[in-house]
Design goal:
By secondary structure, this protein is of the alpha+beta class. About 50% of the residues lie in helices and about 5% in strands. The chain has 9 helices and 4 strands; from the N terminus they run E-H-E-H-E-E-H-H-H-H-H-H-H.
Amino acid sequence: MKLYTYQRNSAGERVRIALGLKGLAYEYVSVPGLAEGEYRRINPQGLMPALELDNGQVIAQSGAILAFLEERFPEPPLLPADPVLRAQSRSFGLFIAAEMHAVTVSRVRRFVADELGAGPEGEALWLAHWTAEGLARLEAMLAQRSQDFTFCYGETPGWADLHLIPALRNARRFDVALASYERLLAVEGACAEIPAFQAARPEAQPDFISSDLSSRA
């Protein structure tokens, strides 16, 4: 399999973590390193990541890729066995992908800063507002759990956790204070000990550029 992504692409990081948790080998393809127009030929959506299967078929969107991996390679599972916890895990991940990430991606930020005339200060305010609001809701979701698990919804890392870690990384890049999110940070600390999360970090990727970590581009 080939994963088309970029070191700082948080949706791509979700997929990298999932592949690592499942012990699946893949070829990392850096999208910025492709010839102009080549990635859109492979993935008409033009967004990262995309997973190309051994037969040449391509799956776009991290949520669809994660669902495919869970169905095609069910062991070890990314989702809990309990139906309620499974649904809560999906809800947690979907909130990050559809509500938080969707309004802070680079194309939205550029529109806010340039087309709407908000400039860098307005962009920063936009990012801080939506990121902090989202994290507060995630913290509240974990507070409502039936028990305090080591990870978001269980004693093994999975679906919710692989969404959370890139979101926290983005929050730091956007200069959002995190000290009040104790449950989220506890999960992050547990994930930091897991090789799959370590290997998926931006700085562990072949196209890593250190200056990108502090950039909002």
